[in-house]
Structure formats: C-alpha cells, structure tokens
Design goal:
With about 180 residues, the chain is an alpha+beta fold. The chain is built from 3 helices and 10 strands, in the order βββββββαβββαα. The protein has 2 domains: about 35 residues, no CATH class; about 120 residues, Nucleoside Triphosphate Pyrophosphohydrolase. Strands 7-4-9-8 form a 4-stranded mixed β-sheet, with helices on both faces.
Amino acid sequence: MDKHLKETRIDGELVYNGHFLKVQRDTIALPDGKHTAREYVLHPGAVVILPLLDDGTVLMERQYRYPLHQVFIEFPAGKIDQGEDPLACAKRELEEETGYSATDWQFVSTIHNAIAYSDEHLELYLARGLSAGKARLDEGEFLETFTATIDELLQWVREGKITDVKTVIGIFWLDKLRSGAWKLE
C-alpha cells in the first residue's frame, strides 16, 4: 500500500557500540531507486509509568539530564532489559526509582519519540493503587520525587516548565482519561 514511500535496506554496519546506545549506518534504496545512507540510534525500548495516587495527584520525578544540562520534571521511566516483559519492567522501575508499588496496572499506549533518528519505543502504563516504600536507585542515579495535580502538570506544560516528550504525552493522556474523553481497554 505504501510501496511508493518505502525505503529498502541494501546493507549496513554498526558504527558505534556503546554501553547504552548503538549507532547503525545503513545504505538504502529510496522509492525512486537512488541510494543514500541512513544513520540511526538503536535503542532497546523503555517504559513510562503514569503513577496516579488515590487522591488524584500524580507521582513525578525531578532528574538532571546531562545532554541538556538541566533538571527535568518527568514520569518514572526506564530501559527495558533484553528479554524483559515491558509490564515487569514498569513495575521494577516504579519501585526502584520511587519506592512505590501499584496493585492496578493498565497499558496506555506505545509512542515513538524520535522517529527520524532512533528505533526507540516507549510503552506507557497507568499505575494505580499505589503504596509507598523505599526507593532503590541504580548506582549513579540521582532523582527526587514529588506529587502534583493534573491541572498543575498541564499548566507547567503550557508554561514550558515540562518539555520532556514522554511526560507531555503522559500528562495529556491523564487529562483525557480523567475527563472521560478517552477510555483504556
């Protein structure tokens, strides 16, 4: 159906093999038959948790992100380990980063946050029935947690205080779910 848009891989090579990321360079055939190169980041995927407390507030994180040299407000999230089930990863990441566990988990959506240069996908989950516990941060991981209302989060998106794409999308999902405009299956 989209044959007139499809690019076809001819060959390729892994040009960078890092601890966390890998960079692939492929030679491809364009729909008109011409050849060109595509470079992209290979990423194992990640989960994003939308932790909704019983009082309607949302559990959030503040974390310094080195590439942009600033602290960002984000949802708890983390990389899916090879062979790991995404829901199991979400449960693990929520506990490790925040100390919280949840009794009610619902899949929300899959998003692709960098389609021009990465194969990364993010699996969003709504977590409810939260219970506090002790965080177990990874070595070299530093963050703090806090709670906010959905309305505060929406205002922070509007003001540019929240710019992380996974968090912006998650906030919009929470707002649509709260209003009843969108339902989860």
